[in-house]
Amino acid sequence: MMGFNKKAVRITTVAAMIGIFTASSGTDVFAHSQDEVFAGASTLVREAMETIRNASESSDGDAFSMEIEPTIERDLSGTFMEGIYVDDIDLSGRTYDEAVKLIREKVRTMSNASITLHSVGDNYVTVTPAQLGMKWDDTGVIADALYVGRSGNMVERYKQRKDLQHDKKVYPLNVKFDRDKITQVVAEQGKLYDVEGKDAVLTKSDGDFHITPGTTGEKTDVNASVSRIMSNLDSFDGSDISIDLVVIEDVPKAREEDLEKIHDIIGSFKTSFKSSGADRSGNVRNGTRLVNGTVMLPGDSFSMYKTVSPFTEENGYYLAGSYLNGMVVESLGGGICQVSSTLYNAVLRAELQVDERHNHSMVVNYVDLSSDAAISGTSKDFKFTNNSEYPIYIEGITTEDKQVIFNIYGVETRPENRKVSFESEKLSETVPEGEKIVADPAAPIGSITTQSAHTGYTGKLWKIVTVDGKETERTEVNKSTYQPSPKTATVGTATDNPTAAAMIQAAMASGSIDTVKATIGELKAAAEAAAALGL
Fold first, then answer.
1. How many domains does the chain have?
2. How distant, in Å, are the alpha carbons of 17, 76, 154 from that of 157?
3. Containing structural domain, residue 34
4. Are the beta carbons of 379 and 356 closer than 8 angstroms?
5. Does residue 183 fall inside a structural domain?
6. What tens digit of pLDDT does each residue of 464-487 get?
7. What's the whole-model pTM score?
8. What is the pLDDT of residues 35-88, one digit of tens each?
9. No. of H helices and E strands in the chain?
10. Alpha carbon 185 to chain centroid distance?
11. Strand ranges in 15-166 using DSSP code E only, listed in sequence order
């Protein structure tokens, strides 16, 4: 900042004599001297003086302050003084453009050096500085070097030139590297030789648990390795170098000593599928097989859908009945919801954390109200988390007499005198009215399938805790609503006979399934009579 008044503007006498103007922001000093080293410097001084003069004339006579921040572009004409170097490049007598060209050529040569990154074991990868994004754009240092011996006042310039006669001035060649590219190289190349740790494996056969020990591996610590590489390249001079990546142990999550603790059944439940046909029974057995043997460490989450999908023949599924929009339809995997519901009840009794659960659209007969857990694609899933302090093992069994059983093993930490049970409560009941008739234009006329009526319900599931036989807690687990569905008939309507088509449409319009069945009987009788007459 400078102080002025209208009557007097003080300018340092020495500065006026040699034409020095210093920007108040602390930027470089620009000289206007007899040899006119910096073209335009005198103009700069005149402009500054004019600014001061105008400011003083506009003042009311009192002192004021102003800050002058001229935008100054360096004059890059002329040549370098003797003894100026950038790294080992002698710039003496060269122009600015020649200097930049020489440096870029050196950087291009440096970019072909070999950088060896030592990875896991005795493995390594070799890359070039170019692959690590090396670049040079520090043109400002060249401009600084060009100013040596030509900036400052007469005394300063003289001293700079005399110093160069005794000792050369060397500027560093500041090449830079791209951290993102180094990260990519380490992630893609350095990790090629990572040896993953293997979890210990827990299995159960013949009533006993068996543990296969895990192994500790080695892996590249990407972030730490990138930081080490960047540090090693701070003073890169183009020579071949070797850098050890940071290698750390990959400790398995499932350890033998943890799995050895699993021995208690902390939750168990079973349901019956005796009324199921062969295909639905096959789906229940297959889904149970896919869940069986699941080990969950503390904090692990489980998704029923992810565990038992995809629902394809290749994955062991058959076509069987399932609910869809209030109807029973054939689908691959029909019956898998019984597997999900049985596991849900075992999880509740183990008091694990339920994250997602949905009831069916209509009631099911294998569990009580609000005790089911439907799955349907990704829109309905059953998910839970092992929020205990120990690993758990899920055992899934299907028996010859068509029972599906889930046992959840872990470490029992609950007091012996504390018991958990569950109670289903019916809140409301809705009896469906009338009948529903659905046309199936793809099925031949005369075909008919019926679905019995389903009563609608609203229910709650309660968790009850007793200590020494006395109830201490009663908590609502969920509230579920099941839609009513009337008795439904799906009727085939495909025919080339307009008379038959009109008859079946009229029967369907009556809204009576019995009327439709009677009409179908008439159509069949007419068809049989016509066949007997050879018509």
1. 2
2. 16, 17, 5
3. 2-66
4. no
5. no
6. 999 999 999 999 999 999 999 899
7. 0.66
8. 333 433 444 445 555 555 555 455 444 443 444 444 456 788 899 999 999 999
9. 13, 29
10. 21
11. 20-22, 29-31, 64-66, 84-86, 89-90, 115-118, 124-127
